[in-house]
Request: fold
Amino acid sequence: MKEEQSSLLLKSSSLFPPPQGVKLSYGTAGFRADASILKSAVYRVGILAALRSLKTQSVVGVMITASHNKVTDNGVKIVDPSGGMLSQEWEPFADQLVNAQTPETLLSIIRECVEKEKIPFDGVQSAEILLGRDTRPSGESLLEAAKHGISSIFGAIALDLGILTTPQLHWMVHARNKGMKATEPAYFEQISSSFRCLIDLIPNGTKVNKLDNRVVVDGADGVGGEKLLVLKNILTDLVNEVRNSGKDGGLLNDGVGADYVQKEKVVPRGFGSNDVGKRCASLDGDADRLVYFSVPSNSSSKIDLVDGDKMLSLFALFIKEQLNILTREGNKKSNNNFQAHLGVVQTAYANGASTDYLKQLGLEVIFTPTGVKHLHEKAAQFDIGIYFEANGHGTILFSESFLSWLEARNNELALVSEGSEQQKAALRLLSVSKLINQAVGDALSCLLLVEAILQHMDWSIHKWNELYQDLPSRQLKVKVVDRTAVVTTNAETVAVTPPGIQEAIDAETAKYPRGRCFIRPSGTEDVVRVYAEASTQEGADSLANSVAKLVDQFLGSGSSAR
Ligand code: G16
Reply:
């Protein structure tokens, strides 16, 4: 490393000293903490992003967001050149860099990484980093810190894209590296035009949502609400109303948003008995998660939740139907056949009833630990891989080889049987691959796909919700002294430490018919999460409460943080 580069790094890092006595780790989705202690971490992630861009000779992204966390938190994560999460191989390096106590240690860690990764670091190669942030008040100054980090590396350029949803930034990094236009209008153009294609392909002529039957969306008082208003102007038939759009002074994620709705199973702020019978949806704070719900007639606050598992099931059903049409009888005459391998990926939070349903559909179901970085990797191994967390975070991945076959098949069908059912099925799958975000879970594109499929099937939200009946479940958070004391295995279903806790959980679980329960340390909040399922709601609640008490006993002082 040249002398000038070293002294630039020493000088700039002295402006961003790390907070004393704080150890941060690159968790489920990057670094997250109270925004007041994050400047140094964000500055250093800027450096890391520049190194990643130099290493890969591609554009990378940095997103400033804490998604579902409370408004006073913030966070930062790197978007890899593929548009996906930072390669997990680089996470330990991110941890070391962010926790280095002095500018000198920081410099020696950077040197080590440059050497180990053989990063071209001569000031000749260039690096480009796209920056985005959500609507948190702390976002602007943290973004400046990221810019400082980036400009501390010779040849690195930061492009500030302002306020974006997290999936928009992922999409733009993906698009840039594929040589496509990577702007917000290009994003909206792609998702809205592929949505229109799906609507035009609905059997028996084009159907349009009746005005009184359009979805009502809770924007979590975050960036998603703001962007949905843009989409509402482009697709005027789509959304009836956006509430909690962030424009009316509501507090981000405070009694609103997908995380709140899914965990508490109650209406978000601004919804109630006037919404009985309506199809409602909720985005999370940075619009990478989506859940649907309806308000039953006998309730003003309880909801019927349609979560990520049901979205996965709806998507799987639709994709499977299109694949069946494509490969049925008349098609067998073609020399151009392809047995697409369709698979689904879930986590331990998936409702047991959803897994049973997916298996009944004949689908291969794989489990991974929590975090889309794990699910995405597995889904990418299929020709079509659908992954979803129960919390509404997920997408559908199409392999390059399947897409080239599909394009060719569509062209072939256009010549021999234009407008046939087979060709329509090919076109529908092609449209889905353009509509749904190939980089990461994206609430806006998932909302469009759900709306298109419900219209295609002519289904109400109730019909959709009846695909299977969820087993009653309950999730709790427990605040403990040190959540890292919980170490898990088997896709987080078994706690290896502290010793004896798993046996105690098993003994408790055995008391409940259809009981299932696990604990895991959160990677985004300072809590241990407890998930319980049983044949009745009382059973699930009681199992979750007993296990929360066990967590308290084994891990020390913490009041239940539900
Ligand atoms: C992030 C991750 C999700 C994960 C969620 C909760 O979501 O992207 O994959 O499910 O955190 O993680 P944990 O249980 O470890 O706290 P988001 O929407 O907050 O970015």
